[in-house]
Design brief:
alpha+beta, nine-stranded mixed β-sheet, Alpha-Beta Plaits, 29% strand
């Protein structure tokens, strides 16, 4: 074999080895990215991840936007946590949250945080959604309907039944990333967020209360309980507001 032919053969082998290394590196990067996304999906929604990925500084810029906000809370959860064994209570709580999260995700809700057993979420951010109020009420009705399945599981496991209250309000808020370079979160800020929390505080177990603004935005699809409109005076709000007891939306009913 000539020296030129030998050199050419060595170059071809080297190229083949480099191509194999590139393919292995590409596969490793894809696996790492997949693992990263799966891990991040446990902390932020796909929408938020997409906004962060498209940002040059890994943040979502702040803006004012009309959104629909929802707060949920379990009734008598403090007493439950004190009465049950810690492992059992956490198992009950995680099973409940897993079911509620699935429904919220299905109606394009963005979960902002868990405060103990409470869920704080927003519809219409980070991506705009003209049906945010309708989606929020649909998900709330679906969540209350599904509580019978949650409690069926609880009873089978020897756990007590639980009840949830849901408050929903629609209004302008500031949305975006807050925090520092070492710790940051996507959040919704403003008096309307605080009002949503106050509305939830008026609920009883199994109840959904919405404000005039949400009722107007979700239009005629919402089904209200007869004589279920109340005038309440939330703390920190200058004037009383009306809240409405929702029992269904479209063809979906709580029971």
């Amino acid at each position: 074999m000539s020296k030129a032919a030998s050199t050419h053969g060595a170059e071809k082998q080297r190229i083949a080895e480099l191509e194999q290394q590139v393919a292995q590196l590409k596969n490793a990067i894809e696996e790492n990215e997949k693992s990263y996304r799966l891990t991040m999906a446990r902390y932020v929604t796909t929408e938020v991840m997409g906004e962060i990925a498209s940002s040059s500084n890994a943040t979502v810029a702040g803006e004012r936007r009309e959104v629909t906000m929802m707060f949920t809370d379990l009734r008598n959860s403090t007493e439950l946590s004190e009465r049950m064994e810690p492992e059992a209570y956490i198992r009950l709580l995680n099973h409940y949250l897993e079911n509620m999260i699935t429904i919220i995700d299905g109606w394009r809700g963005n979960i902002l945080e868990f405060v103990g057993d409470a869920i704080v979420c927003v519809y219409g951010a980070p991506h705009e959604n003209t049906d945010a109020a309708t989606d929020a009420v649909y998900s709330a009705v679906a969540m209350q309907r599904h509580m019978s399945k949650v409690n069926e599981w609880n009873r089978a496991e020897g756990y007590p039944s639980i009840q949830m209250g849901i408050g929903i309000h629609t209004g302008e808020a500031i949305v975006g990333s807050i925090g520092s370079e070492t710790r940051m979160k996507y959040d919704v800020i403003g008096r309307n967020m605080n009002l949503t929390s106050r509305v939830e505080g008026f609920t009883k177990g199994g109840q959904i209360l919405i404000t005039d603004e949400t009722l107007s935005a979700a239009n005629e699809q919402v089904v209200l309980k007869k004589d279920g409109t109340m005038l309440v005076h939330p703390k920190g709000v200058q004037n009383p507001i009306h809240v409405h007891d929702v029992i269904g939306i479209g063809g979906l009913r709580i029971s």
